[in-house]
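Batch job 17 of 40 flagged for manual review because the log was empty.
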Amino acid sequence: MILSLRLTTVSICLLLLSSMTTLAQKNDAQAKKILDEVSTQFKSMKTVQANFTLKIENAAGKSLGSKTGMVYMKGTKYRVSITGQDIYSDGSNTWTFDKASNEVTINKLDPSANTITPQKLFTNFYDKDFLYKYNGEVKEDGKNVQEVELTPTDKSKPFFKVLVHISNKTIVSTKIFETAGNRITYKVSKFGAGSGVTDATFVFDAKKYPGVEIVDLR
């Protein structure tokens, strides 16, 4: 799974339309306004660092496991670090490093591929690939957050709905409903400008991992 990166298969990293057309239009407009504010704030930051937790449940609500991690972003570059795995992208290539096997797989990044990178989760990915509506305010961890519901326009996707919770123009959690029945929740515990994030952060350095096996698929 971003975690092995469900961010890249969803990986992540999204409608129950109202029967009243005028209400649906109103909800869509409000949802777009909220998502646009998130996108604008994100784009204003040169570098971003966020801590998150990934939780997977089955359709009955039984926990299938959880992981914690950190994501760094700068322009089109990103790095995701989770328990047992690091994923790097310099905007042209991606490195997926499995710590247990000491193996890294390198792939050429295809900008035309229908994937969701960490950046897309915070920007305007929703305009092209999803229908969306505003569900109003809900409680999360005792606080009021705005809930936006998204549905992929491509019905062949492995998920059929995503609930995005937003507070202060920042995504605080995303819950993905897979067609297979699992529920995947990403919860952001810290989000802000990255300090000390350089271009080297987004490139795998084999010298730091003696004996690493390199699988180059480019």
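Reviewer: the log was empty due to a logging misconfiguration, but the result itself is present. The first strand starts at residue 47 and ends at 57. Unflagging and moving on to job 18.
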